[in-house]
Design brief:
The complex is a heterodimer of chains A (400) and B (217). By secondary structure, chain A is of the alpha/beta class. Chain A has helices spanning 2-6, 83-86, 152-172, 183-198, 214-233, 244-260, 279-293, 307-317, 332-338, 346-356, 359-387, 392-396; strands spanning 17-18, 21-22, 28-31, 40-45, 54-60, 68-73, 77-78, 95-100, 102-104, 111-113, 120-128, 131-134, 138-140, 202-206, 237-241, 272-274, 297-301, 321-326, 341-344. Chain A has two domains: 2-147, Immunoglobulin-like (Sandwich); 178-357, Rossmann fold. Classes of the chains: A alpha/beta (400), B mainly alpha (217).
Chain lengths: 400, 217
């Protein structure tokens, strides 16, 4: 209701009744909610079923005109088709809606955009077999909105889950929390130990996404933990990159990890290198490294596409121990099939915290699990309600 | 020094993390402007980073050639390919390096006839890799593998006309497998991924997770 209060709303009854052509009732014009500005929204009562009408919208900057054509249509949308703006009210099926962002200037095909802060006068015309009937001028002022009200549910849910996670982080400082065992991460030390014993290298592969993506950030965090261990074990680490920014960050991460372990001399700048910038060129380059250099362990973390199977199937033929982690559910089956251990979905994000054993980080994992339990509870309740035809909870959590 | 390597990156993370979060909820023009400006800066950073990437690529392959490491001939091909493509980009089908990139000429030919064709070849190898991976997975050694084998056979048959020819039940079962158990698993993973992403973002924005800067916490 608060969003309605901010709208400039004028409602009028039909003013003109011509031979067989009546103006629709409840015409309203107001600033389009939840937008960047420069748009007005016009709503009116739905045409009687079976009646064929042609609607035109005219816009002027003064009440007495001149009015210019903004848009014309025989099939305007319904309010019910835009729940993000109008909610899920049953009455929404009874109203047409049109958004206007510009109008014809009268000079050929040139059009002028609506300007924020300018008051416009809008008239709705209805064309029927008997002729066009034009309603009274209604005024409204377009402006940009400071909050997208259709994202209230997202904001509240986000704040709620963040609160739970932060609460468990603070709790973790005071008491030990139980975190379930993740086999893929337990195997990491085994894989690195095996590489050390064999005197072979460890190959770390990021996914294809850039540094601004969360799976890549998670992968780089894991790389930091892996680099600390390779520095400690004096094992050769090779990091093949597809993205130059990820490469630069990875170089710093590995360098810092070696420094942290007191082995700055063991760090080689060319151990973190650019393999290629294209997906399949990258796959070919990494496969070449796997076959020629025969690393003892392949660690693949991040977001992968079709190259996942190319890499891991080649890797499995070399006999290397393979640990993969991705949140790309389309590639998970390939990793599960070809790798010794696979971190599925959220386990990729949990890896860095799990490996560090830092209480604060482990607390975030616990908070994550509690958040998941809350969502599962809501899903169960929502499913039961939806089964009995109550959609309130479904609508409350709908992405609009 | 600690300010430059620790405090400043945390500050950037916090400010830009919170800005990105706020922008998501604000449709106003100023928010869009900030978002565009950040995207522009990101592109600038990437432009410089590409030089670093190029340097890394060429120096790596140069050391392989110099030390005659295994497969050094491939490194030579990298250099030759890089030189030829650079030459054609500068030539730009006769228009020179300062004109807009021509849509015809040797560079475009090399790109579509060599690069795209090579990429397509790599991609097509997936078909063979899937077969060998499927062979290993579908050996019914455990009850789970047996369920996977049966499900996979139904899905594969249900996707092709011969499945419906054998029995109408096959496409229907395939559809049920895809839209019920498969969809449930997919959504379960997505749910965990979303929460994991929120937790990771919080850890980074509030400086709790610092390993992306190297050296642990």
């Amino acid at each position: 209701m608060s969003k309605i209060a901010s709208w400039i709303t004028v409602t009028v009854m039909a003013l003109h009744v011509a031979a067989g052509a009546a103006m629709p009732l409840a015409i309203e014009v107001y600033d389009t909610p939840n937008d960047a500005g420069g748009s007005l929204t016009l709503t009116w009562s739905r045409a009687v079923a079976g009646a064929s009408s042609w609607y035109s919208v005219y816009v002027a900057t003064a009440a007495d005109g001149p009015f210019r054509l903004a848009t014309t249509t025989a099939t305007p949308g319904l309010k019910s088709a835009e729940p993000g703006l109008f909610g899920y009210d049953d009455d929404n099926d009874g109203y047409h809606v049109l958004h206007i962002s510009d109008y014809a200037t009268g000079n050929g095909e040139e059009r002028e955009s609506l300007k924020d802060g300018t008051t416009y006068f809008v008239r709705l015309g209805v064309q029927t077999a008997a002729g066009e009937v034009v309603g009274a001028a209604l005024s409204a002022t377009p402006r940009g909105n400071l909050f997208n009200t259709s994202k209230w549910n997202n904001l509240i849910l986000g704040i709620g889950l963040s609160f739970v996670i932060l609460l468990y982080i603070s709790m973790a400082r005071r008491k030990d929390l139980f975190i379930r065992r993740i086999a893929g991460l337990e195997a990491l030390d085994e894989a690195l130990g095996r590489a050390t014993e064999m005197g072979k290298s460890v190959l770390f592969v990021h996914g294809l996404k850039g540094m601004d993506q969360i799976p890549t950030i998670a992968a780089v965090s894991i790389l930091g933990r892996v680099a600390q261990r390779t520095a400690r074990f004096d094992t050769d680490l090779r990091v093949a990159n597809v993205d130059p920014v990820v490469m630069s960050v990875s170089q710093e991460v590995v360098k810092e990890a070696y420094l942290q372990e007191g082995r700055p001399d063991a760090y080689r700048p060319d151990s973190v290198f650019m393999a290629a910038t294209e997906q399949f060129s990258y796959a070919a380059a990494v496969e070449g490294i796997m076959v020629r250099d025969r690393p003892a362990a392949h660690i693949l973390m991040g977001y992968f596409y079709a190259e996942s199977l190319l890499l891991t199937e080649t890797g499995s033929t070399t006999g290397a121990i393979q640990i993969a982690g991705t949140d790309s559910y389309t590639q998970l089956p390939f990793f599960v099939t070809t790798c010794d251990y696979t971190l599925m979905g959220e386990e990729l994000y949990a890896a860095s915290a799990y490996l560090s054993r830092e209480p604060k980080l482990l607390g975030s994992l616990k908070g994550q699990d509690v958040g998941k339990a809350l969502i599962i509870g809501l899903l169960v309740v929502g499913t039961v309600l939806a089964t009995f035809g109550v959609d309130t909870l479904t609508h409350l959590f709908a992405a609009l | 020094m600690l300010f430059l390597t620790r405090t400043l990156p945390f500050l950037f993370c916090f400010v830009f993390g919170m800005t990105g979060w706020v922008i998501y909820y604000v449709p106003h023009e100023w928010a869009q402007t900030v978002e565009r400006e950040i995207a522009l800066w990101l592109r600038l950073v990437y432009a410089f980073a590409y030089f670093l990437g190029l340097f890394s690529l060429l120096s790596l392959h140069w050391s392989k050639i110099r030390q005659r490491q295994a497969g050094w001939a491939y490194s030579l091909i990298v250099y030759i390919s890089f030189g030829v493509m650079t030459l054609f980009v500068v030539y730009n089908d006769g228009h020179g390096p300062f004109a807009a990139q021509a849509t015809t000429g040797p560079y475009q030919w090399m790109f579509t006839s060599v690069h795209v064709a090579s990429s397509a070849t790599m991609f097509s190898m997936l078909a063979f890799f899937i077969s060998s991976a499927a062979y290993r997975t579908f050996r019914a050694r455990t009850p789970e593998a047996a369920i996977l084998l049966v499900s996979a056979i139904i899905v594969m048959l249900g996707r092709v006309p011969i499945g419906a020819y054998i029995s109408d039940i096959i496409p229907d079962t395939m559809q049920w497998l895809m839209s019920v158990p498969n969809m449930a698993a997919k959504r379960g993973i997505l749910l965990g991924v979303s929460l994991g992403a929120i937790a990771t973002s919080l850890r980074i924005i509030f400086g709790i997770e610092r390993s992306y800067l190297g050296g642990g916490d």
